[in-house]
Amino acid sequence: MEDELELIFPSKEYKEQIEEFIQNNENNIPGGGGLEREETFEDWMQKINDDLSEEKSKARGRVPSVLYLAFRKRDKKLIGIIQIRYALNEYLYNFGGHIVDSIRPSERNKGYSTKMIALALKEAKELGIGNVLMTCNKNNVASARTIIKNGGILENEVNENNKVVQRYWISLKKRYADGRNKANHILESDFKNIRVDNEEFKGNISLLAIKKVRKEWRIDVEKRCILANNYNWLEIYPDGKQYCITAMFDDKDKIAEWYFDIAKEVGEENGIPYEDDLYLDVVIVPDGRIHVLDEDELKSAYDRKEVSKDEYKIAYKVANEIIEKGKNKNYLDELTKFTTKYLKILRGDENAL
Q1: Which of 46, 101, 216, 311 has the largest count of CB atoms under 10 Å?
Q2: Residue 47 lies in a domain
Q3: 295 and 190: one domain?
Q4: Does one domain contain both 125 and 187?
Q5: Residue 37 lies in a domain
Q6: Which domain holds residue 32?
Q7: Contact 189/210 with Cβ under 8 angstroms?
Q8: Is 287 exposed, middle or buried (0-12, 13-18, 19+ CB in 10 A)?
Q9: Is 233 helix (H, G, I), strand (E, B) or coil?
Q10: Considering the domain boundaries, does residue 157 fall inside one?
Q11: Kind of pairing, strands 65-72 and 99-103?
């Protein structure tokens, strides 16, 4: 379990262990922020503190990043070092990635790298990184295994100085129908999913029956509520589409809004539907208002090279198609009938059909 380790930002308190870590490693320490190259410990500390700042790191010809020491909790031993880059330049996009790490030679092949990366991914998510790139040499089977265990999907292989480098992406933007991503807001809920395959629809439809919430969510100038006790979220995952729909019903079964999450893909894991979020969202209110959300997040992810040019274009293509449909009153009438019907079916209401 990753709770065997803890990540701590370096300080003078750990100087002795850090210097000993250098002596017990090879000449190159990936993720060390140049640890093995700096003349003094103080120079290295200055460097990694500068790396926290976009302005200061840029002045050094680097990208902003944060570096952590990984300590084993039971004996406070320094096991490894890991660096999380907030953004990528062209070289890092092709060969370096967001996260890079080193493990003390005596502690390798014990699963610590997998655990350390898992902790770093939590930190990356807190930093707002939605898609993490990790790379390794093709002949480094152990590194590839740790990346895959943390959800890495191989995109391609590239050549660097006669070496084959594998590029893996780890999505931190997956949203699951059972509400696990909303655990801080939803205290009690029931979940049900059905697979539908008929002329009307093909895909998964889920019901998250929300019993109790920590706090209501109210949005827009009229403070429209989309989450409260006894609300129902009907989630629709159509096969072959790059979006899912959440129909948000209040405690009187009145639709508050339809929320379209635009996705890289819609899929299923262990019987639970999910969408791999592509930042951009479209909200349609029953009175016909349409809102496009998170354009700034999509642009920022594109600038950081987390989203490709093709994905950026796809997000807007899908959004525009949804917007055009949403302008049609007949479409909204059909959407109302469809979502209300399946709310009743999943809830087990009599005469739902």
Answers
A1: 101
A2: yes
A3: yes
A4: no
A5: yes
A6: 2-131
A7: yes
A8: exposed
A9: strand
A10: no
A11: unpaired
Q: What is the pLDDT of residue 1?
A: 46
Question: Looking at the structure, do residues 192 and 302 belong to the same domain, yes or no?
Answer: yes
Structure tokens at 288: 């016909």
Please give the tally of structural domains in the chain: 2
Give per-residue pLDDT as tens, 120-157: 999 999 998 999 999 999 999 999 999 999 999 999 99
Q: Which two tokens stand for residue 263?
A: 């996705």
Whether the pTM exceeds 0.70: the reply is yes
**Residue found by looking up tokens 């990043």 in the block:** 65
Short-list 64, 156, 88, CA closest to 303: 88
- How does pLDDT run across 20-50, given as a tens digit for each residue? 888 877 678 889 988 888 889 999 999 999 9
Specify whether 71 is located in the same domain as 125: yes
Instruction: Residue 225: give its domain's CATH number.
Output: 2.40.380
Q: Residue 172 belongs to what H/E stretch?
A: none
Residues 61 and 183 in one domain: no
- Residue 35 makes CB contacts below 8 A (sequence gap 6+) with 18, 22, 29, 44, 81
Q: Do 338 and 194 belong together in one domain?
A: yes
Q: In whole angstroms, how large is the CA radius of gyration of the chain?
A: 24
The answer to whether residues 67 and 51 touch, using CB atoms and an 8 Å cutoff, is: yes
| Residues 222 and 293 occupy one common structural domain | yes
Same domain, 126 and 180: no
CA distances from 24 to 19, 21, 78, 107 (A): 9, 5, 11, 11
Q: Of 335, 26, 317, which Cα lies nearest the Cα of 201?
A: 335
**In this structure, what token pair is assigned to residue 96?**
């370096």
Give the DSSP per-residue string, 21-81: HHHTS-S--TTSSSTTT-SSHHHHHHHHHHTTSHHHHHHTT---EEEEEEEETTTTEEEEE
User: Which stretches of the chain score pLDDT less than 70?
Assistant: 1-3, 26, 183, 221, 350-353
End of a domain among 104, 131, 158? 131
